[in-house]
């Protein structure tokens, strides 16, 4: 579903990621860890074709990312839901309008019952008409998750989804991602919270990858 063969990525001629090979199977659960600045966000951006590799081959759903046209990339984006590090809401819209945006911007219908059900699932049924500025950090993150999955993607990529949350709220968010994985979704989470990884590994079979020295490696047995 996501396949990397000897992928490298450079910014302004300086190589940040090198020789990365990985096969992400449907229904799998991956953590991506590594120090700040190692390239976790960059790696995720490659996985949803926001960036293209500077070397190697990146296959998304059987298509070579470097050969995709605009329509193919738009198709890929519908199959991959992304929870961004900085939730990026439109402040003048309500929570439910923000969550529905991936549908409304592509002129697709919004089913009000499904939207209500989704907001209830992430525990925000009572906050539907609130504006982003009125939401707590945990509420924003759960809204970002709801927005990422409103198009029913096959894959969910989450970039530090628990970054500003306390431990209890982090576990709550992670349990939603675990539940999505149990429903068959492929999940990849970038985080440097090793405690969270350990907690989640008790609930789900997760593969832990680490970016160190520009390379992608399996994390040690301690995780
Ligand atoms: N568009 C860009 N142009 C040039 N350099 C960039 C660009 N985006 C990221 N970088 C640099 O690449 C490096 C890796 O950034 P990235 O955000 O991928 O790391 P990260 O592991 O996600 O970091 P963090 O854990 O702090 O979020 C950083 O040094 C960053 O400054």
How does this model look, in words?
- The protein is α/β, with parallel strands linked by helices.
- The chain has one domain: P-loop containing nucleotide triphosphate hydrolases (Rossmann fold), CATH 3.40.50.
- It has helices at 40-47, 70-79, 95-104, 112-121, 137-149, 167-182, 194-201, and strands at residues 2-11, 14-24, 29-33, 55-60, 63-64, 80-83, 155-159, 186-190, 207-212, 215-218.
- The strands form 2 sheets. A 6-stranded mixed β-sheet has the order 6-7-8-3-9-10, with helices on both faces. A 4-stranded antiparallel β-sheet has the order 2-1-4-5, covered by helices on one side.
- Strand 7, helix 6 (167-182) and strand 8 form a beta-alpha-beta unit.
- The protein is globular and about 45 Å long.
- It starts with a strand and ends in a 5-residue tail after the last strand.
- The structure holds adenosine-5'-triphosphate.
- Adenosine-5'-triphosphate is lined by residues 11, 16, 34, 36-42.
- Keywords: ATP-binding, Cell cycle, Cell division, Nucleotide-binding.
Topology:
Elements: E1 2-11, E2 14-24, E3 29-33, H1 40-47, E4 55-60, E5 63-64, H2 70-79, E6 80-83, H3 95-104, H4 112-121, H5 137-149, E7 155-159, H6 167-182, E8 186-190, H7 194-201, E9 207-212, E10 215-218
Parallel strand pairs: 3-8, 3-9, 6-7, 7-8
Antiparallel strand pairs: 1-2, 1-4, 4-5, 9-10
